[in-house]
């Protein structure tokens, strides 16, 4: 019997640990509602200030509401959701929406990578899926907001080409927090 190093289960897998594989990123489909609900609850449990609702509110929402949102964002050019789907549970999400006052812009929202997949390049894959969709819709720019002080997220978005615009806005649900806007070409 041969033995190798014992993997450190507390450490997120590196690209090498994952065999160089990536979770396929694709646009959400209507049949994904239950898996998207599970990921949404995970997102809220992991980062309660980032997603504009409480886990209690999300858990109380009927499945039919999740299904309707998933169906709506699975098609069209105004709103879209993308998921990382290695099979089984989703491991990442990013959405895009077109603000009515800036038709050349896509706002990237609800960006999330499950902890065991962080550091694998999946964040970039999710952002690129939104960027591809944005360009296909004739929108050449992306914008996102991040809580001031969330330096890890800020640095990750910088590595993906986003720059701080200098614009600061109040957090939509926590008055004591401020968000900063970052933009980049799609």
SSE-based structural type: alpha+beta
CATH class category label of the domain at 25-138: Alpha Beta
Mean pLDDT: 88
The total count of strands amounts to 7
Strand content: 25-35%
CATH topology of the domain at 25-138: Aminopeptidase
Low-pLDDT ranges: 1-17
User: Radius of gyration over alpha carbons?
Assistant: 17 Å
Outline the biggest β-sheet.
7 strands, mixed
What is the number of helices?
A: 5
CATH homologous superfamily assignment of the domain at 25-138: Gcn5-related N-acetyltransferase (GNAT)
Secondary-structure element series: EHHHEEEHEHEE
**How do the strands of the widest beta sheet line up side by side?**
1-2-3-4-5-7-6
Helix content bin:
25-40%
**Level-2 CATH architecture of the domain at 25-138:** 3-Layer(aba) Sandwich
Report how far apart the termini are. 52 Å
Overall outline: globular
Protein name: GNAT family N-acetyltransferase
Organism: Micromonospora endolithica
Keywords: Acyltransferase, Transferase
Region (Disordered): 1-24
Your description of this structure?
It contains 5 helices and 7 strands; from the N terminus they run βαααβββαβαββ. It is an alpha+beta fold and 186 residues long. Strands 1-2-3-4-5-7-6 form a 7-stranded mixed beta sheet, sandwiched between helices. A hairpin with a 7-residue loop joins strand 6 (163-170) and strand 7 (178-185). Helix 1 packs across helix 3. One of its GO terms (molecular function) is acyltransferase activity, transferring groups other than amino-acyl groups. It holds the Pfam family Acetyltransf_1. This is GNAT family N-acetyltransferase.
